[in-house]
Amino acid sequence: MKEQILELLRQHSDKYMSGEELCKRFAVSRTAIWKHIKDLQEDGYQIEGVRNRGYRLLAVPDLVTGSEIRNGLQTRRFGQYVVDLKNTGSTNVIAAKLADEGEPEGTLVIADQQTGGKGRRGRAWYSPGGTGIWMSLILRPELPMAQAPQLTLVAAVAVSLALTEIVGQKAGIKWPNDILFEDRKVCGILTEMNMESEEINSVIVGIGVNVNQELHDFPLELQDRATSLRMVTGQRLQRAAAAQRILEQFEVLYDLFLREGGFAPIRELWKRQSVTIGKQVVAQTPRGVIKGIAVDIDEMGALVLRDEQGQVQKIYSADILLAPPV
Amino acid sequence: MFKLNEIRELVRLIDETSVTELNVEAAGTKLIIKKELGVAAPVIVQPAPVQAAPAVQQPVAPVAVPQPSADQPATKEDKQPVDDPTLHQIISPMVGTFYQAPAPDADPYVRVGAKVTDKTVVCIVEAMKLMNEIEADVRGEIVAVLAENGQLVEYGQPLFLVKLD
């Protein structure tokens, strides 16, 4: 009921909702309404209560709750069902469990804080409370297995376009799907796939975006390579609003990728948003370091690199370091 | 590339069964083991033509196989299933990097001798930062690991041999 009261106050935020009206709607006592209002105020919602007039919503806090994510969200599936958590180990782990239990495509798991945020190959993703978007989306694409890795590039383009729009400055993609502002990482994407008898059962796309951190909020070892939306814009942002833009972009591009255009338009968009192509890069692959120039991504999404001997190599797995400008 | 003990393990396996020929492909190398009546099993190793960068490998036993010509890739041989119905291949569902463990410093998901069930994760194949946890999908015992940690594997490439329960 607390959430329903909030929805009503949202819809009527230009005027006062009388306590009596609320009592009637929910068929409860005035005291019960008052308790929920007090609860909402404790969550950070600024609700004005005026005798003989009623309640009015003045400001919403920076929360990543289902209510805040869904409010005004322009999608059909992505984020329409939200599992919000104050604190969890890893949203990817929770999402994988929910996917296993049969939750549908578009289900979103989002947490205010992650204590075991995951990066690639067992690395940690720093995800303190109240500062970032730590979310995982369940996808169930009907797609040949071989094309599944392209989803990580679809996600990269979606986040890149959303953040470019929010910040008003190009959010560059580093292959395959790190998002950078001025060569510093603002977003990481970790995608995990589950198969069922040789077909895709679910794909969990974990997206971590640094939103309201300041430089000193990052651990020392990250301070020279991490950034946040706040550090770029100089302003605090509502995390839920940024998450909405990402979900909206992602749904549009995902549908384009699966239903109409295939990978070709995604590849073009990826290249346009990329800060990798044409650059001198160092690829740290599991089989050693390859230095060269990133010349393209191929039709599967692999990085095409011309190494120092002039040989063209395709990279499927690597950490890419962009050489500093000379 | 096959390790000597892996080849030895396979030869012993062939020896103990009624299987007369085994073709496996991994690590840019195709391995053919044939058993003829009353003759010691010759082990043949040759580069696989479909691999982007075939590893150069020394044969460990007399070689008696014609080199496939460039315009005649040995696709038919590649697809030939293992005759022994109790030996199951876990194959790679996509092109990517094969990892035996969840992290560089972690223990492998499975080793030779490990018992697996349908849901046992046996490895990860990664491409474009999509991590694909491969499940055994069968019950049995791992008898061979056919790919090396960090190696690029092809679609359909055998990764493990499982002796089914």
3D architecture notes:
The complex is a heterodimer of chains A (326) and B (165). Chain A is α+β, with helices and mostly antiparallel strands. Chain A has three domains: 2-59, Winged helix-like DNA-binding domain superfamily/Winged helix DNA-binding domain (Arc Repressor Mutant, subunit A), CATH 1.10.10; 66-273, Bira Bifunctional Protein, Domain 2 (BirA Bifunctional Protein, domain 2, 2-Layer Sandwich), CATH 3.30.930; 280-323, SH3 type barrels. In chain A, 32% of the residues lie in helices and 29% in strands. Chain A is built from nine helices and 14 strands. In chain A, helix 2 packs across helix 3, helix 6 packs across helix 8 and helix 6 packs across helix 9. The longest helix of chain A has 22 residues, at 239-260. Chain A is elongated, with a radius of gyration of 22 Å. In chain A, 42% of the residues are buried. Chain B is mainly beta. Chain B folds into two domains: 4-47, no CATH class; 77-164, RNA polymerase II/Efflux pump adaptor protein, barrel-sandwich hybrid domain (OB fold (Dihydrolipoamide Acetyltransferase, E2P)), CATH 2.40.50. A four-stranded antiparallel β-sheet of chain B has the order 4-11-9-6, with helices on one face. Chain A binds chain B through residues 120-123, 145-146, 148-153, 176-177, 189-195, 197-198, 203, 285-287, 300-302, 314, 316-317, and chain B through 52, 93-97, 99, 102-106, 126-135, 137, 149-152, 155. Strand 8 (184-196) of chain A pairs parallel with strand 8 (130-135) of chain B.
